[in-house]
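Tokens as discussed.
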């Protein structure tokens, strides 16, 4: 079984929480499935859950280099040189990232976020699509910060051929593995 779940903002990628914060058990009542990978609490979008250990490893293990595409709202408007840095790989404290696919995109037609991002009158923002093939802790946020454009909103749009399109936040659907 493979579940495509649109994880809302402020939801934990686990089924239990000692503090009873919003978590997967509030949305997915399917026994025996576990997340294949993670999304931070302050990130939104596609989370895959499966009961198949081999499929889970193929999705989550970095050695398989499964592409993960993110729609990222960033502070400022990056020059082509900054996007070029992302495409070549960015040096982070834990080493250089693999080259990413990076492009500026029009504002995507997404669901609203609760709470909305902070907006500052004097600082513009824009959206980029960033596709990576590894999954370090808070990697996308660290990459955009490294090029001088902090992340304001982060939505994982796809993993491999699976995408969150058409799934509302907090909803899920079964897919083929």
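Sequence:
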């Amino acid at each position: 079984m493979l579940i495509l779940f649109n994880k809302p903002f402020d939801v934990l990628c686990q089924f239990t929480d000692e503090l009873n914060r919003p978590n997967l058990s509030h949305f997915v009542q399917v026994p025996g499935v576990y997340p294949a990978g993670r999304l931070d609490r302050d990130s939104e979008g596609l989370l895959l859950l499966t009961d198949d250990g081999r499929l889970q490893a193929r999705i989550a293990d970095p050695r398989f280099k499964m592409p993960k595409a993110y729609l990222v709202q960033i502070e400022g408007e990056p020059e082509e040189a900054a996007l070029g840095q992302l495409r070549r790989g960015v040096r982070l404290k834990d080493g250089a990232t693999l080259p990413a696919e990076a492009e500026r995109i029009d504002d995507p037609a997404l669901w609203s976020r609760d709470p909305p991002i902070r907006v500052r009158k004097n600082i513009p923002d824009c959206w980029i699509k960033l596709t990576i093939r590894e999954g370090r802790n808070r990697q996308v946020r660290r990459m955009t910060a490294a090029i001088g454009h902090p992340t304001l909103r982060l939505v994982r749009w796809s993993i491999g051929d699976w995408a969150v399109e058409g799934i509302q936040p907090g909803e899920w659907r079964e897919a083929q593995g």
